[in-house]
Amino acid sequence: MGIYFGVFNVDKREWFSGHDLESGAKWWETTNGPPAVALLTLLKVMDTKDGWTGRWAGDRIVVRGDYGLDWGEVLEEIEIRHYGHPSWSWENEEEGPWKNIGEELFPFLVAEGALPCERVVKPENGYCSRCDWPVDHHGKLLGVVLRKSSL
After folding, report:
1. Hey, where are the domains in the chain?
2. What is the mean pLDDT of each run of 10 residues along the chain (151 residues)?
3. Structural contact between residues 23 and 116, judged by C-beta atoms closer than 8 angstroms
4. What SS3 state is found at 36?
5. Is 123 left (phi over 0), alpha (psi -120 to 50) or beta?
6. What CA–CA distance (Å, rounded) separates 90 from 16?
């Protein structure tokens, strides 16, 4: 139990928490673990075409605890504070126009070597179903070689 923190982009209406990145989401874990790595990647100003690096550069960012609320309630409070009113009712739609990007961001961070993949599920094709990296017959990740595109 305790307060769990999420990282919210007010301008793009995107967010994630440490739980989306195979991490804890309490304050220490958020500021010193995978969520901090993810945030720095999203804020990093670089000339890349990967779609993630620098994606949040220049945007308004909020790191906020849930204080016993559902994430939908937290999102609604952020909207009221920054826009004056919510654009939806969290009771009817959990995230409304907000998108949790953690599940999409995690494989990118693993591929870049920024985060380890700790929940490797050994699928029949020899790749982790979570991060899409090759795994051996014991379920351990094999090097940093990425799966080749089928294009």
Report:
1. 5-111, 118-151
2. 92 94 91 92 86 93 92 88 78 73 87 69 61 61 43 33
3. no
4. helix
5. beta
6. 17
